[in-house]
Write a structure and sequence with these properties.
Two copies of one chain form a homodimer.
Chain A: H1 11-22, E1 27-30, E2 35-38, E3 48-55, E4 72-78, H2 84-94, E5 100-105, H3 108-123, E6 128-133, H4 153-166, H5 171-183, E7 185-191, E8 211-214, E9 225-228, H6 232-247, E10 253-259, H7 265-281, E11 286-292, E12 302-309, H8 312-319, E13 322-323, E14 328-329
Parallel strand pairs in A: 3-4, 3-5, 5-6, 10-11
Antiparallel strand pairs in A: 1-2, 2-4, 7-8, 7-12, 8-9, 10-12, 13-14
Chain lengths: ~325, ~325
């Protein structure tokens, strides 16, 4: 698999150098320590939001650092958790005294390291609250596994809780908004191809021509079911069914039609039309739609559908201004 | 090649349905006639900008329709020019009486059809001015070919001339700004893989493992030179050399580090770091940087570099607010 890289070992550092060069007005990047911080941090009187996780899901999380969303992101190696030291340093850099919310995707390494970091940061006097994303309905919650993975729903939590923090809400309130979003959000992903990590240089699993994988995660892991290739409409039927039957929304939803990285926007918008069709058939009203590559899996072809059941407050916070590398609205 | 589509014949119509569903606040979409129009068009007292071209380059052009950029986009079939009838109808829909600027990429079919459309629109009383993009330095200007292709530079023209129109500049002035941008902009593209069109379902040319193509266009056509695989740094050396030696900028530039569609953002930001390194070595100052998939070639892996030498006025117009599906800033 050909890649636009120098050497696999430097992929994350190179990307952080590029991020620093492209967004000097917005970000302060510590390439060596792997910390991306909102340029004007710490913002006086404001609760800070901090997230992180393995690299390879860009623009998540560093592309969401800026006014109205995250204050800091801690990227790990590709598909590898960042370490507690990164998180503690980042928390200290963005804490204004109002505390820090950790936004964590539910993977064993991430949860472990963020938990440790929260303890260390609190030892240093930083008040920490944590929200864990478990939006992927493809993973069963039978108690045998580590539970549902955090995927596309992370964007909704970071945007909406970020807006609450920007408005000056205290930590307990920002955390409560974040948890409300997390509890109201579900995702389902589909892969048409496996992704290739720089270190491996080859697809992480074998997906033959003419087959797709339903219930895919964002780390190159296989999904829950392999099927002969389906049309865009059939994929929308399956993905929306999985999400809606779990979430059972009874009010308008925010919709994210997300690309896994290598699916052209032309196809993704066509898929968005099918998702809207299925939601209409199921009498689920859509309040807002976002289409694009936001929570990706390197060069994987495929898509995911995320729904967030939003009440009026969450909708207002979703619509609030945001200024990050990957998501901008208003001001 | 697996694709997220229903049937190849419906790819463009499906994408337009999705665009309409996702952006009801921003766009009016005539799916049957393939016309995407800014929702509040015609805007009284404002010159309108209209562009179009083959589909497969998304978000170009429809993703750039909205306040501060285009008033209308006319998508053709994949890699196929739109027809004059689309353009004439779109021009009539967006003309407020102040005239319409056609933004055209230099391909034989596009130029022919936009020229015919300009005549027809003028017969109907719409004043039309045209700017043609020829930014791709990979094509020689020896007089034998149709001349240089329009590629990534289109984004700069649409954004900057769109801002001038939004400020109320008359048609002659908007056209003059657009031509100034076009003349000050150069691009160079590199493919790591060929793209596959929905109709063909297979790569448009053969690019073996271990080789890349320098000087690639955005329509799946081969480039000007095939080479053994290069590092990100070596690709930046080659691409920036081609652009800078043609443009010879003597003041700060706007930089677009563009993905061709399937290259992960992680790699694209790493490449942006190398482009910044090469520009610094060549003593070219960078005023602004945009990194992302903006002028694509379906599922092609690769990238392009576009530089626009911007004076203070062009820089101010680049920074002006814009609200489109794919590019937002301010307000």
């Amino acid at each position: 698999m050909k890649m636009l890289i120098n050497v696999p070992e430097r992929v994350v550092a190179d990307a952080l150098r590029g991020l620093a060069a492209a967004h000097p007005d917005l970000l302060t990047v510590d390439v060596e320590r792997r910390i991306v911080v909102r340029r004007d941090a710490p913002v006086a009187g404001k609760v800070a939001l901090l997230s992180g996780g393995g690299s390879g899901h860009e623009p998540l999380h560093a592309g969401f650092v800026g006014p109205g969303m995250l204050d800091a992101a801690c990227p790990g190696e590709v598909f590898t958790s960042p370490v507690p030291d990164q998180m503690v340093r980042a928390a200290a850099a963005v804490d204004s005294g109002e505390g820090v919310l950790f936004v964590v995707k539910n993977y064993t390494g991430d949860v472990l390291n963020f938990t440790m970091a929260a303890e260390l940061a609190e030892d240093e006097g930083v008040q920490v609250s944590t929200v864990v994303l478990r939006d992927d309905v493809a993973v069963s919650e039978d108690g045998e596994s580590a539970g549902r993975r955090g995927t596309g729903g992370t964007l909704f939590v970071e945007k909406i809780a970020g807006a609450a923090a920007e408005e000056g809400a205290p930590l307990v309130r920002v955390a409560s908004v974040a948890r409300r979003v997390a509890e109201s959000t579900r995702s389902f992903g589909v892969a048409l191809s496996a992704c290739s990590t720089p270190a491996r240089g080859a697809p992480t699993f074998d997906l033959p021509p003419g087959e797709l994988e339903l219930g895919i995660g964002i780390h190159g892991e296989p999904g829950r079911e392999r099927r002969p290739m389906m049309t865009s409409g059939e994929i929308a039927d399956a993905a929306v069914a999985a999400v809606v039957e779990d979430l059972r929304p009874d009010s308008p939803v925010l919709l994210l039609v997300n690309g896994m990285g290598a699916t052209p926007l032309l196809e993704l918008y066509g898929f968005a039309a099918e998702v809207h069709r299925v939601l209409a058939e199921r009498r689920v009203a859509v309040a807002r739609t976002l289409v694009g590559n936001y929570v990706t899996s390197l060069d994987m072809a495929g898509c995911s559908v995320t729904l967030c059941q939003a009440d009026e407050e969450l909708l207002r916070l979703w619509d609030a201004p945001v200024r990050t590398a990957a998501l901008r609205r208003g001001r």
